[in-house]
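Need Efflux RND transporter periplasmic adaptor subunit's 3D structure for a figure. Predict it.
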Amino acid sequence: MKALRQLVLSLAVLAGGLYIWITYVPAARPLLERAGLLDLLGVEAAQNDAAGQGRSGRPSRGVAAVITETVGEMVGEDRITAIGDGRARRSVTVRSNAVGVITDLSLAAGGYVESGAVIVKLQNEEETIALEQARIQLEDARAEEVRIKRLQASGATTEVRLRETELALRSAELAVRQAEFDLSQRQIAAPISGWVGIIDLEEGDRVNAQDVLVTLTDRSEILIDFRVPERAVRNIKVGQAFEVTPLGVSDESLTGKISAIDSVVDRASRTLLVQGRVANDADMLRAGMAFSVNLTFPGDTLLAIAPLAVQWSSDGPFVWVVRDNKAVRVTVDIVQRNSGEVLVAAEGLSAGDQVVTEGVQTLREGAEVKVAPPDQSASVARDSQ
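Structure prediction for Efflux RND transporter periplasmic adaptor subunit:
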């Protein structure tokens, strides 16, 4: 009998504790409902609703107080990230025009030269002498032409002799031009303005024709070659801006513009080659650097909701929508996450609906809710715990 009385007393204490837990702990009812124990215990959904207002003046535990935000609309973005290779706007390899010994080298490794500046001079004594000889022969040919024309005026010479003199004068003029050209080949000028790379030349070195002297690089702009997936073909355009970050300087973000688009999609990778330009005013970038390129294209119009409204279950993300003062669960598909909103697609959800952002812990399908003003969000948070 003593054991029976102890058993009855224990069951009474357990039942009382269970009743208090169900009545005053908001999270108890959803937990028991998911476990399928509400019907077993005979607890009706409206049990707490009849309790009315509590001593604090807030709604009873059967009506959940929540904070909501309005569902908006926003145009989604299609973002593409690619790795591109940089190269200089122009790069010219300067070669020797002739065979000879370097007598003057106006270059410094890493220096800058202007277009047209003489950077290398070769020994030119032989060419200088040849030019002087050609000029002497030209003066002699001119004098002979004057003499023959005087004789021809007096009838002392023939037309054939005059023709020969004119041809000799023309040949002498061409010989002077050839000598001047040969002399000009003994000095090499910079074809573009640009920066000098590492050089391995010294005055006194002998070079042959077509030997590489130096490489000049115009890096006032950096060209970036990168590839985009074929889905971007309809959206990408010349002149479109993009963000670019040097991989070696990850905290530096620059803006470039697309300058050229290839006409063929690569069959193997299903990508399209694109070229962009980035200004290098600070001379921070170099040819050969790798870049992270970010392109953004406008997409479809999607529903925008607050990040706090998104809840998760074993079936995926969902939100609680307040309709007729009751909670309705709506499954959503997350399309894009931004810092201030989440873009979703969902059936049964439209712009202007109210989604619950605070007080979601006690909600269940069809539960009555009361939307509290935003300034009571702290109170709602305490009640939902």
